[in-house]
Design a protein that fits this description.
Helix 1 crosses helix 5 and helix 2 crosses helix 3. The chain contains 12 helices and no strands. By secondary structure, the protein is mostly helical. The N terminus is likely disordered. The longest helix is centred in the middle third of the chain and has 28 residues. It has one domain.
Length: 285
């Protein structure tokens, strides 16, 4: 989304001190919600199909990839519910890509807002995360309906799904805080991150399943990525309980401590880095 002008009144009264969090938690949450809703509405403003495009984007990508990898490559012939796995993986990856990709330029896109009003700077990337969760909710309804239509049976392991989506959000938020603060000073962050996202897509078990990877050490390497571990566990919990869990694919529960530690480290470090950079953001724009 390009730069957008937001009237000062839409975000409430200015908060003194351009830090990361500001003083009042209630005001902070209000600003995050307000900015997220404004962004969500403005993204589809003037569009004839409106919010329908948010659902169509992953569906169109799914249609192309499904055609290529089933008809030409024949990759998912012996994988249970491969169409559901592919669509779910695309939706989860789209969420991560939207959060981190939009966070990169989120502060620079709102330069006029940052210069005119003193408010907690962390509002901006967190509003991107909340808006992405709005989109994820719409897209996951499609995944849910698609899964039921193709014969996926509801089971108790679905309880894991909200926690996995939360873990994905924490991971994306940590990365988003880092890249948003870095881009203010280093504009090379955007092209570097775009290439990184492309690499992550193919390094995540979306087009393929982990058990089909020929080398055991490569399987374990793929599961070191938080994105890979979350997608694999979502497959096990939501789609097919007979499929390997993330722990089984990684070689044991102990190996899952690594992607878990990566998520927690990036979130804590991301907050620390953003909080340190926040007071100088307006000056560096």
């Amino acid at each position: 989304m390009g730069a957008a002008e937001y009237p000062a009144g839409a975000l409430g009264k200015p908060i003194r001190g351009p830090s990361a969090l500001g003083g009042s938690p209630r005001r902070f949450l209000h600003l995050v919600r307000t900015l997220a809703v404004l962004d969500f509405k403005l993204r589809f403003f003037g569009s004839a199909l409106g919010y329908f495009w948010q659902v169509m984007r992953p569906l169109l990508l799914f249609a192309v990839l499904y055609l290529v990898f089933t008809e030409f490559v024949q990759l998912g012939d012996d994988v249970n519910f491969y169409p559901v796995l592919l669509l779910m993986g695309i939706v989860l990856y789209t969420f991560f890509s939207d959060v981190t990709g939009d966070c990169v330029t989120s502060i620079v896109d709102r330069e006029s807002l940052v210069r005119k009003i003193q408010f907690p700077r962390l509002v901006i990337p967190l509003a991107v995360v909340l808006r992405a969760y709005f989109n994820l909710a719409l897209n996951f309804l499609v995944v849910f309906a698609f899964a039921l239509a193709l014969g996926v049976d509801p089971h108790l392991s679905w309880i894991e799904v909200p926690f996995l989506l939360l873990a994905l959000g924490v991971f994306a938020t940590g990365v988003g805080m880092i890249v948003s603060a870095m881009f203010v000073r280093y504009r090379d962050v955007q092209p570097i991150w775009e290439v990184t996202l492309q690499l992550l897509f193919y390094a995540t078990p979306i087009l393929y399943v982990v058990e089909k990877v020929p080398r055991e050490n490569l399987k374990e390497l793929l599961m070191l990525s938080p994105l890979g571990a979350i997608v694999e566990e979502m497959r096990h919990a939501f789609i097919d309980p007979t499929a390997p869990s993330a722990a089984e694919a990684a070689g044991g529960y102990a190996m899952l401590l690594i992607p878990t530690a990566i998520v927690l480290f990036l979130f804590v470090y991301g907050f620390w880095y953003f909080n340190r950079a926040a007071p100088q953001i307006a000056e560096e724009l």
